[in-house]
Amino acid sequence: MDRMDHLEHLDKHLVDELAQVARETVRDELREQTRKQRRKATLYAASGAAALYAGAALALTVGLALATGLPDWTAALITAVLLGVAAYLLRGAARPGATHGTGPGRTLGGDAPGVPPSGLGMPYPPMPPVAPGGVGGATGAPGAGTPAPGGTGPAAPRRDDIDPEAPHGRG
Fold this sequence. Notes:
With 171 residues, this protein is mainly alpha-helical. Helices cover 52% and strands 0% of the residues. The longest helix is centred in the first third of the chain and has 66 residues, at 2-67. The protein is flat, with a radius of gyration of 35 Å.
């Protein structure tokens, strides 16, 4: 028995040591990946700042070129409008599937999709196979396709009988 206790102690020590080595290896790998990602993010940020200053210099050049033949305030206004149009077009290009403008039947910001974004399912909720409460349930409502109690009145509509595109209401 004494020998088994000694082996259990060795197994526990070995497991603890392997877990420690695995933790250190994972930590070192994550540290290396993080360092690479941080460097890449810094370079992207510097590139964006340089592009911002290049755009400002270009806008200034356009404004000064326009100011040679126009009053200064008009040149500045035209430059601002050009930058605003460029910003609007870039924003539209960044949105996937966006359409520009509003027309008849269009709402600002777009329309609701006809089907869910996943592309699965129907554009309207499905009809339950049984009316709420079930056949003869708490509400006493008949099930789908079964006549009302006592045989009077029309049968409840079946799933195939409902046209989701038909107008609702009577008259």
